[in-house]
Each structure stands twice: as structure tokens, then as C-alpha cells.
Amino acid sequence: MTIATQEIPSDGTIRWGIVGTGRIARRFAQGLAHVPHAQLTALWSRRAEPAITFAGEFGGEVCASFDALLASGIHALYIATVQDSHADYAIAALQAGLHVLCEKPATINQPQLERVLDAARAAQRLFMEAMKPPFYPLYRKLRAHLDAEPIGAVGLVRAGCSVPGVPDDHPSLSFEHAGGALLDIGIYEMFLAVDWLGAPLEVQTLGRLGATGVDTFASLNSQHEGGIAQLFCGLDLHGKGDALLMAKGGHVTIHEPWWNPSRATIRYTDGRVVELDEPFEGGGLNYETAHFCELIRAGQMESPVMPHDKSLHMIAMADAARAALGLKFAGE
What we know:
Blueprint: E1 14-19, H1 23-32, E2 38-44, H2 48-58, E3 61-62, H3 66-70, E4 76-79, H4 86-95, E5 99-103, H5 110-123, E6 127-130, H6 137-148, E7 156-162, H7 181-197, E8 200-209, E9 215-224, E10 228-234, E11 243-247, E12 250-254, E13 263-268, E14 273-277, H8 285-297, H9 308-325
Helix pairs in contact: 1-8, 4-5, 5-9, 7-9
């Protein structure tokens, strides 16, 4: 496919397209209103009626097909579909000359992600997994504070989330769509471990599979370059939690829900206690979107905050955990 080169207007406005019109697409569109010089231009969904309703609320042209969306004059595509389709949509968009922001998990396994990244390099286009926590004001403030008043190198990360009561027909429980707790929820915890501790060296996993064949609970102990992580994720127990970062000079609690962070407490070994409170606006997805737009304008192919290696380390952890549970999806 011929690579299209869409010139960015003089005012820097980035024209966005969305594939998929579900809950996360709505959050993205709501957040886009808080991003300067960014607009929703076009969208497409397999079902026309929800797409028309979506466009009526948020704007944008409803395209007749995915190919029409790629050819609609957009600069960037946000992929908001079920995760088994992420890789195919991302590769097609990159080959069409578009920059791609893909909802987590970027793909369902490491070989798929490597193919996507190969396509991004070949097309010289920006690709980023939409992992929201590091772009929140609280997370950035916490990083800055620990740079200025360190607790030392973080050596243990503990985090988890479990949400019961998911409807039986929800994609999270769908084997066909590569659902399960590890990819739907655990990928957040894996990010936190990789972000503070580096590449995984070993992953030990205990868990269980549910009636639909996907994992409904998993507990991970992982060894990283910088320390150890204790993580859990589930779809059959209730456990919305905080996150703990431990170092020699103190520890940090990112209060729940840590994946939409707004409060953190830092406790130093000398007795000092620092409270950080940073509310967020626009639902939170707007921060990663604004970062992505800035990268496009700067001609960057990779985010320094959410680089490709980080996504590769995260999906490697998920692959190892699924292998331990005996969970293999179609085509793997």
C-alpha cells in the first residue's frame, strides 16, 4: 500500500481517526476535547448504528469501511477495538502512512508486537501503546519529586486489581477475543513493574482459568533487573488496590485506583512524610494523547516515556504468565 503523507497544518492541528466505538473509544473522544490542536475527524466501527450515534455526540465523519477510514485524511489512528484485532489494524494503518496510538495491550503476544514494530520502522511512523498511568500529573510529579528528594533505587513493586461481576458476554471473558485478567488488567501492573524495575528476568505465576477458557485470576512474582515485583489481577474477586514502591530510603504508596493516579504518600526512613495530590481532568486519556501529538509534531518515531522496549518487556511477562497457566489463544 502506498504511504500517504498528510501535511500537518500550520497551527499544528492533528486530525484523529478512531476504529471502534465502545467504552474506551468514548473516553478517548471525551479526552480529545482537552487536547489543544487535536480533533476527531473520522471513525469506523463494524456496526454502523453505534458509529452514527458516536459521531453525533463527538463529531467526525463515519466511514463506510476501515480502508475508507485510513484514506480519510487523518494523521493518526487510535485503535479502540477488542485486543485480538489490534495487530492487524495497527499494521494496516502504519502501512497506510498513519501514526498509531493503540489501546493496551498493544497486541496479544510478543511475536505480534514485533511485527507491528517492524511495520512502524518500515513506514517511519510513530507507534505507541496507550498505557495511561505515566502521563498523569500525579505520576509525573512523583517522578520529579523522587528525582529531587530520592528514596533510593526501588527494589520492590507491589500492585494489583481484581474486578468481579463481569458479564458473561463481555470481551474480557472471551477466549475468541483473547480476553482474560492478565491482558485486560494485569498489563497495567506489568507496566508498573517494568517502569520501576526494568526488564523481567523470570516470571513465576499461579492462577486459574474460568469457564470460558481465559484466566480469571493470576498472581505473579517476577524478578527484574532492578528488583522483585508482586502482582495480581483478576475477574472473579474484588480487590481494587493501591501500589507500593519500596526502596532503602523509604517507600511510596500510590493510592487507589493507582492506574488512574491522583494521590501518593512518600514515607522516608528519617520520619518525613510527603503527600502528593494532583487531580486530573478530561478522564485521564487526554494526557497520553497530548504527548502523542507532540511527538508527531516533533517527527519522533518512538515515545521516551512509553518506548517500544517497555511494551516488549510487558508483553513478554504476559506471555510467560499465560504459558505457566497453559493458556494459548487460537493461532499461537
